[in-house]
Write a structure and sequence with these properties.
Blueprint lengths: L4 H11 L6 H42 L3 E5 L7 H9 L4 E16 L2 E10 L1 H5 L2 H4 L2 E4 L10 E5 H7 L6 E12 L2 E15 L4 H6 E5 H7 L8 E6 L5 H12 L3 E5 H4 L1 H39 L1 H9 L4 H32 L1 H12 L20 H27 L3 H5 L3
Parallel strand pairs: 3-8, 5-7
Antiparallel strand pairs: 1-9, 1-10, 2-3, 2-6, 2-9, 4-7, 5-8, 6-7
Helix pairs in contact: 1-13, 2-11, 2-13, 2-15, 11-13, 11-15, 13-15
């Protein structure tokens, strides 16, 4: 072994300081706590940032297509044949023609802006994030020849609506009459409520059958967009080039990376900055190890001199003090690792307990995009955090241990 029994015994005895050396022990304890809290905080924050990005990405790509095709100057007319052509491309999983438009929703409980998406029932049922999260009603009522709609649970809660109630949609594009432009409006029955877990979608999206949307937005036998879902979303740019080659002029495509680039870039920048800031906490705790070991070396000068005169080598002295400091870093890192992992894996339980204790809503979905705090552990990232913390702590012990090994026994015992 690198450290002999004698070196381990002396090193661990120095960690248990006597009463007159209590100040050194206090600094060591605070160094250990600082490292533990720094490592735990870094693991928790990285897990939440990873979970936040993954949850947003899964919901955005579950509700919206990986790539959308638009007509450049007019709606897409022959969308049936175009849909079949796109569906035949390698790497394409699902192709959905749709009519999309903004409306004002009016109900007895008030009014709100919304985004209407007209889709074929089979295409909507293929959207697992929507079809698998129906909280009330029946998706079977959503048929081609009907006028029943699906709305988000948050919108229903905001407007005081439930399944079976009616709502009125008002289009911003009115109808020109001799009396001027009249707003175009129509009432629809609510067939079901959905909740995907993202406040923006649950409070603003309305799904209606494609023929009804074409009639409401005055797009007979036309659509204003075709959404494409691919097998590998990360390779969407290569497929986008092939789709452009297949379609030719007259169309433009927009993939999810283009549509959300600024959003996800901001998350990545924030993640990197948080990693850097929280690493400084571990660095400050490592500096505390340096100060505590330097004070320990000065306090143990006579002991070092006696050990040297009894035959201890400089290497033994250096290993004794290195082991003392490294033990603080190792224990603190392991404690922070356990605390951070336990907190990240039980963050929902801890959130509920704190909300019941304080009587407040710690995670308001209206302010934040998601309805609950996400946390996803990346074990490679956790290993990087632990390795970095151990590296900083071990590096912090080198100078004090070297200084102890360089201590001259004669000078240390001159005034004893």
């Amino acid at each position: 072994m690198i450290f002999g029994p004698f070196e381990r015994m002396v090193a661990f005895r120095y960690l248990r300081a006597r009463r007159q050396e209590g100040f050194v022990s206090v600094i060591a304890v605070f160094s250990l706590l600082g490292i533990a809290l720094g490592v735990a905080t870094l693991i928790i924050v990285m897990a939440v940032m990873n979970g936040f990005r993954q949850e947003l990405l899964s919901r955005i790509l579950g509700v919206n297509g990986h790539l959308t095709v638009y007509g450049i100057s007019k709606p897409i007319e022959d969308y049936g044949a175009l849909t079949d052509r796109l569906a035949g491309l390698a790497g394409v999983r699902l192709v959905t023609p749709q009519v999309q438009g903004q409306v004002m929703v009016v109900a007895a409980g008030g009014a709100s802006g919304a985004l209407v998406r007209g889709m074929r029932p089979a295409d909507l049922k293929a959207r697992e994030l929507i079809a698998g999260n129906i909280t009330a009603g029946d998706l079977g009522a959503f048929t081609e020849d009907g006028e029943a709609v699906l709305i988000g649970s948050r919108m229903a809660q905001k407007l005081g609506l439930k399944v079976g109630d009616s709502l009125t949609l008002i289009s911003p594009q009115g109808t020109a009459t001799v009396m001027g432009t009249m707003p175009r409006m129509k009432s629809y029955r609510i067939a079901a409520l959905f909740q995907v877990g993202m406040y923006e979608y649950d409070s603003t999206f309305i799904y209606m059958p494609l023929p009804a949307a074409q009639l409401f937005f005055r797009l007979p036998s036309q659509v204003n967009g075709i959404e494409v879902f691919v097998e590998d979303p990360d390779q969407v740019r290569d497929l986008r080039w092939r789709i452009n080659q297949e379609l030719g002029p007259g169309y433009r495509t927009l993939d999810w990376q283009q549509a959300n680039s600024s959003f996800f870039n901001a998350i990545q920048v924030e993640r990197n900055v948080m990693f850097l800031i929280l690493t400084l906490i571990i660095l400050v705790a490592a500096f505390n190890i340096i100060s505590s070991l330097i004070m320990l070396v000065k306090d143990k000068g006579r002991d070092i001199a006696v050990l040297r005169t009894m035959g201890a080598t400089r290497g033994m002295i250096m290993r004794i003090f290195f082991l003392s400091g490294a033990s603080i870093g190792l224990i603190g890192t392991l404690a922070g690792f356990g605390l951070g992992v336990a907190f990240s894996l039980n963050i929902q339980t801890i959130q509920g307990w704190l909300e019941r204790l304080t009587g407040t809503d710690l995670w308001n979905a209206e302010i934040r995009f998601l309805t609950q705090i996400p946390a996803v552990m990346d074990w490679a990232e956790v290993a990087t955090v632990v390795a970095m913390a151990l590296g900083l702590c071990f590096a912090a012990t080198i100078y004090p241990a070297w200084r102890a090994a360089r201590l001259d026994p004669v000078e240390a015992l001159r005034y004893e």
